[in-house]
Prior knowledge:
- This protein is of the alpha/beta class.
- It has one domain: 3-Layer(aba) Sandwich (Collagenase (Catalytic Domain)), CATH 3.40.390.
- 47% of the residues lie in helices and 17% in strands.
- The two termini are 26 Å apart.
- The mean pLDDT is 91.
Amino acid sequence: MHxxxxxxxNSIEEDYVDLLDRLIxxxxxxEKVTTEAxxxxxxxxxxxxQELNRNYRQIDRPTDVISxxxxxxxxxxxxxxxxxxxxxxxxxxxxxxxAKEQATEYDHSLERELGFLALHGFLxxxxxxxxxxxxxxxxxxxxxxxxxxxxxxx
Length: 154
């Protein structure tokens, strides 16, 4: 899988980029995503992610991660999860400010928080969601399974 990384904050160390590349490729294999798939991971400050959150979700506050799937399933369509994925999956935007805040709040490393957020965004690109309790349980359980198997458990 090809991942384009864009760090608008100029604060993400190469070790973190390498870790996220390995994690998302690992998750892609777990989810049977073609190795031809492409996506981007973008690191921004709170003000930029707040603007995206306001414009696309009508929530005027910073959030930790937003995903923009290029091909989302509509009502009555099959979900994107599994082997029938589009080649270009979409974009993940991560707030570095929020990642740092949450790493401190949850008392774990920035590495773990960035991994969690990148994986969370990636699963959204694959069609996972957490709008209702059933879907949330499935998505969060899958996140923990992949993070644990990769070695980024809490």
